[in-house]
Write a structure and sequence with these properties.
371 residues; alpha/beta; Rossmann fold; Arc Repressor Mutant, subunit A; 3 domains; nine-stranded mixed β-sheet; three-stranded antiparallel β-sheet; 12 strands; 13% strand; globular
Length: 371
Amino acid sequence: MSPLEALVALNMLPRIGPVRVRRLLEAFGDPAAILKAPEELLKRVDGIGHETAGIIRAWQDHADPVAEIREAKERGISIMTQDDADYPAPLREAYDPPLLLYVWGKLEPRDRHAIGVVGSRRATHYGTQATRKLSYQLAQSGFTILSGLARGIDTAAHEAAIAANGRTIAVIGSGLAKLYPPENLALAEKTADGFGAVVSEFPLHTAPDKQTFPMRNRIVAAWSRALLVVECPAWSGSLITANLASEYGRPIFAVPGPIDKATSAGCHQLIRDGATLVADASHILDDLGELPFATNSNSSETNPSLSEQTNFSDLPEDEAKVLAVLDSSELAIDPIIQRCGLPAHEVTAILMKLEMRRLVRAFPGFRFARR
């Protein structure tokens, strides 16, 4: 049995969980050795009682890892372990990182710059519009929008990231073969087809329940560089996600709402408790400081030029072309267009993006300089 097959089998067992599996791996070293271990040795591991040991000993009654891996491959889904280079680094540092990630789509290095966006499933028009505005701006600034594919705020966040031609990751509380909610299948397909990935820690045919959603929330909290709560009542799963993110040391941002509406009571409580009030994406960008497309400070030169400092490989080609034209001196829009050789309307749009990313500073008279 391969290590992947053994991990898939362990992940499919009921009532085991990532913390217990981690302890078992610390005790036995190899995942296949866990499945072969006698009951008495299993019970010596902290948290492994008679019932759990019995489940592990009878693992073949619960799991068919070969069939699971084969079906995932047929569906175009990759199964990622913590040893894989693409496994999100922030999750490895969590107390209970997912044993496996089922990934439909593709994870990229830039997804380490993820901002979680959460809120009510019963979003109001106000909440939906605020989510679209902020998620669009953040995606244009180079951040990956991370959410849960749920109805309401989650859906608006994913859709806005795609509209901005940005990146988005949907972490769901079910198996990928039981995608929930079903009406978001088209959104999930579009996400996986070039805009990011749909991710789950659960075996393919796991149905959603009251336990799977809190488990999903901890992934969003741990993966996110910061968490934005747009709209939620006083008792909400979004507040649980915010509390988890705070425990992980992630900054919390919240959008205020009408003071007489219960739909924003949770956000108001977060703000009273110290979350940063947000009315525009610039409030988040200013607080985070370093942005996804920032300058490269690894140059060995004593006084490196701006061209040497900028990591152009992180930028789309057209944006890198416009940024290369600029330096610290103000330059009018017409020479910028002439030097980079792109259409005027494209240059204008790119300059706006670069300004949002804090790479370009705008001056009166349509003049620009690199920061």
